[in-house]
Amino acid sequence: MNHQKKKTILVIEDQQAIRANLLKILKHVGFQTIGAENGHEGMELANNHLPDLIICDIMMPDIDGHDVLKELLQDPGTARIPFIFLTAKADRSDIREGMNLGADDYLTKPFTSDELINTVFARLAKQEAITQPYLEDMKRATDILEEVAGNIKQAVDQVGTLSYRDSLTNLPNRKALLHWLPETLSEAQDKQQQVAVLLLNLDNFRSINTNFGQGTGDLLLKAVVERLQNVVLEENAITHIGGDEFCLIQVGVLQKQNAAKLARNLLNSITQPYSLNGKQVSVKTSIGIAVYPDDGQNPDQLLTAADQARRSCRMRGGGNYRLYSSLADSVNDPSLLR
C-alpha cells in the first residue's frame, strides 16, 4: 500500500474490542482509519471526513446499521461511499435486507484478517473501476472547458486589439491615440522632452471620392499610409483618427523647427501623384502642429491646438503646414481660431 495514495476507512462498531481490532488490521496494511462507537457518531464522522469506504455493524443500540445506511444514502455527499455491513447473523434474509438497502458487501462474524482485507480491497477496486470513467470524463470536460475559456479569452483579447485598430488602414485609431498619448506626455515630462503632435488631412479627399468612387478613395488612404510609414519610422507614431485625418506623434523634439522639417518631408512625399485603378490622382495636404509643453499640457489641449493650426492652414489654401505658435504672430483674424 505504500506506493498508493492512502485511503480512509470509517469503522462503525459498538463493541470496543472488535472496533479496535478492525482499526489495527486496516491501519497495518496502510489505510488511514477512523472509528465510531455508535451510529450517530458514525454518521457525523462520515459527513465530516467523507471516507473512501465504511464498515458498519448492523446490530447496534439506538440506531442500527440499516438506519445508518438509509441516512447516508439521503445525502449526495455520502451516498456514493462504498458500504460494507458486519453481521453476526447468518440469516440470509438479514443479509438480503442490507443488500436491498444499497450495501455493497457484507462480512459475517467471525471472519479472518485476510477475509477483511480481501473484501475491502475488492470493494475499493470495484469502486475505482466504476468511478474512473467518470473521472476521466470529468477531466476531459475540464480540459474542454479550459480550452473554451482560453479561446474566449483569446477572442476577447482580439476584440480588444481590434477596437484599437482602424479596419481599413490597420493603423491605431483615435481610441488608441487617446489611450497612450497621456502616458507618452507623462514620460516626456519625466525626461524633460518635447512632443510634437501633427494633425494631417487630405484637402481634396471628398472630391476624389465623388469623382472616382469610394473604392478609389480607400486605395488612396492605404497608399497615403504607406508613404507616411516610409517617412515616420517609429512604431505607433501614426494614427488614423477618422476619414482622411491622421495624427503623428514625434517624441524628443529638440526645437519646433524639427517638427516643421518632418511636416515638409510629409508634404513632399504625400503630394506626389498616385496611380490608382489606372487613374492619376493628386492630393493636397494640410498639417497643423502643436508642441508639448508650450502649446498644451495635456492631450486635449494639444489636439485642439494642432487642429486650430490645421484649420488655419486650410483657410489659407491648404497644401502646407502651420505651427500653432505662429497663429498669434501672423494675423489677428478670430476666424482662424474657430
Quick overview of this protein structure:
The protein is of the alpha/beta class and 338 residues long. It has helices at 16-28, 39-49, 65-74, 92-101, 113-162, 174-191, 205-212, 214-231, 256-270, 299-315, 327-330, and strands at residues 8-12, 32-36, 53-57, 83-87, 105-108, 194-202, 238-242, 245-253, 274-276, 279-281, 285-292, 321-323.
Care to describe what's here?
With 338 residues, the chain is of the alpha/beta class. It has two domains: 129 residues, Response regulator (Rossmann fold, 3-Layer(aba) Sandwich), CATH 3.40.50; 164 residues, Reverse transcriptase/Diguanylate cyclase domain (Alpha-Beta Plaits). It is 51% helix and 19% strand. The chain contains eleven helices and twelve strands. The strands form three sheets. Strands 2-1-3-4-5 form a five-stranded parallel β-sheet, sandwiched between helices. Strand 1, helix 1 and strand 2 form a beta-alpha-beta unit. The chain is rod-shaped. The C terminus is likely disordered.
